[in-house]
Automatic annotation (TrEMBL):
Belongs to the binding-protein-dependent transport system permease family. The lineage of its organism: Bacteria, Bacillati, Actinomycetota, Actinomycetes, Propionibacteriales. GO terms for biological process: transmembrane transport. The chain crosses the membrane at residues 33-52, 92-116, 128-151, 182-206, 231-250, 288-310. The keyword Translocase does not apply. GO terms for cellular component: plasma membrane. It comes from Nocardioides lianchengensis. It holds the Pfam family BPD_transp_1. This is N,N'-diacetylchitobiose transport system permease protein. It is a multi-pass membrane protein. It is found in: Cell membrane. Keywords: Cell membrane, Membrane, Transmembrane, Transmembrane helix, Transport.
């Protein structure tokens, strides 16, 4: 008994004249876009309105009189022109950028170093270290600043007492009067409060590195430093880029630590960063138009500083 096999018609059989039949178009369902629409609208209202309001305010002369009902006067780019010609603004910008980059670099180095150390710790020691980091991270900012003020107090501070016992002349030394020592104290506080996030995130990324890659590199004769440099760090680099991006943004807009330390004895004009400068222009002096212009300038500066990180992230996604 002979059996026949049915074969599907080829393109040439379906179209004797040589033309290919049109493929049916896939219709996309609008349901996913409809589900995303409420979230997009909420984000647009929550983020878009304040930004637009800030830009409009920066183009106006808005002071205390406008808060009591007087119409705001439209001045265009006058606030920006005055800021560009103000040398003090550029000092604050340079100070803020240096403070941001130094603290972000130190935080990343210390956080990643702690994450690498936690991999080599025994479980009880690692849990103890993680608990301490979690407590430091969860401590309220003002409570932490109060503790640090006690530590660096000129009369009763533990830091001065320890340095004096070590042979230094630090009895009654005020750490907040000089700008350099002021920013040293501020950097210690900012790094101390930021390291736990970097350490936890980097440690979580390190636990996802395939052990087979590290073992293969070891079998090929790679030293521990070479395995770290050529295997481990490239594997976790996407996570480190995101964390570094967040650190740059956070350290550029730092406010509470600087403001509280200024109130504790620091010289305001010599220690202002962009956050405190905007606050003192708006709330302190009542010049909300100029303060809004500085805020827009700060937003543009944030975009400039974070652009290299975003570019690296996009390159890694493409590769």
């Amino acid at each position: 008994m002979a059996t026949s096999t049915l074969t599907p018609p080829s393109v040439d059989d379906a179209a004797p004249d040589g033309s290919r039949p049109a493929r049916p178009r896939r219709t996309r369902s609008p349901l996913p876009f409809g589900l995303l629409l409420p979230a997009v609208l909420a984000l647009g209202l929550a983020l878009g309105y304040p930004l637009v309001r800030q830009v409009v305010l920066s183009l106006q002369e808005f002071g205390l009189a406008q808060q009591f009902g007087r119409p705001a006067e439209w001045v265009g780019l006058q606030n920006y022109r005055e800021l560009v010609g103000d040398p003090y603004l550029w000092k604050v910008v340079l100070r803020s950028v240096l403070f941001c980059l130094v603290n972000a670099a130190v935080t990343m180095a210390v956080g990643v170093g702690l994450a690498l150390l936690m991999q080599r710790m025994s479980k009880p020691v690692r849990l103890l270290v993680q608990s301490g980091l979690l407590l430091a991270w969860a401590m309220p900012v003002l409570a932490a600043l109060t503790v640090w003020q006690w530590l660096f107090d000129s009369q009763y501070g533990v830091v001065n007492w320890l340095l004096t016992k070590a042979g230094g002349d630090y009895a009654g030394h005020s750490w907040l009067l000089e700008p350099l020592s002021f920013f040293l104290v501020a950097s210690v506080i900012v790094v101390w409060m930021s390291v736990p996030f970097v350490a936890f995130t980097a440690y979580a990324a390190l636990t996802q590195v395939p052990a087979e890659l590290v073992e293969a590199a070891a079998m090929d004769g790679a030293s521990p430093r070479q395995r770290l440099r050529h295997v481990v760090l490239p594997t976790v680099s996407p996570v480190l880029l995101v964390v570094g991006l967040l650190q740059v943004i956070w350290d550029l807009r730092v406010f509470t630590q600087i403001y509280v330390l200024q109130k504790a004895g620091g010289t305001t004009r010599d220690t202002n960063l962009l956050g405190t400068y905007i606050y003192r222009l708006g709330i302190g002096s009542g010049d909300f138009g100029t303060a809004a212009a500085v805020a827009v300038f700060m937003l543009a500066l944030t975009v400039v500083l974070t652009a290299p990180y975003v570019r690296l992230m996009l390159r890694q996604e493409e590769s």
